[in-house]
Design a protein that fits this description.
Blueprint lengths: L1 H11 L11 H52 L3 E2 L2 E2 L9 E7 L6 E7 L9 E5 L4 E5 L22
Antiparallel strand pairs: 1-2, 3-4, 4-5, 5-6
Length: about 160
């Protein structure tokens, strides 16, 4: 009778086999595959995030230029006192500047990537005639600036 009970107990306990689980080699292979995927995915993701922030600069420049044109229609000058006539957009990724011409008949808007941020190294301009330029790009993003267009993706040309 005790043999029957001991056999029943052994059936209830999980069997520990020598072949269960993962070997060290299998774990190392999985880790190596994960590292290769991460090595390719992280730079691609970083570039995608950078590209997604560029419209913040370009739309800020366009919006400010539109506001300056509206002010010009009423006052026949882009200048108010010693500065541009409109408030610059607020942004954590770009700093915006406006330089009016001495006679008030022209302006140059500049969006520069914030120092210490992901967008550092980017700079775009727009003037009263609608001339858009890329004046600064991070290394590896394309031709050497200044370029007569806004570069919005790595390797793009005017």
């Amino acid at each position: 009778m005790s043999d029957v009970r001991s056999k029943a107990r052994r059936r209830m306990q999980p069997a520990l086999c020598a072949g269960s689980g993962f070997s060290l080699i299998e774990l190392m292979v999985a880790l190596a595959i994960g590292a290769i995927v991460a090595a390719t995915a992280i730079p691609a993701y970083r570039e995608h995030v950078m590209r997604s922030h560029i419209p913040e600069a370009t739309s800020g420049l366009l919006l400010t230029a539109m506001r300056l044109e509206q002010y010009y229609q009423d006052h026949r000058s882009y200048r108010k006192d010693d500065d541009c006539a409109v408030v610059m957009p607020a942004s954590g990724r770009f700093s915006f500047r406006c330089k009016p011409g001495d006679d008030g008949q022209s302006f140059l808007l500049t969006a520069t990537g914030a120092t210490g941020e992901l967008m550092q190294g980017f700079a775009f301009t727009l003037d009263q005639a609608g001339n858009a330029q890329t004046i600064e790009l991070p290394d590896g993003w394309g031709d050497k600036p200044p370029l007569k267009c806004w570069i919005t993706r790595k390797g793009a040309k005017c």
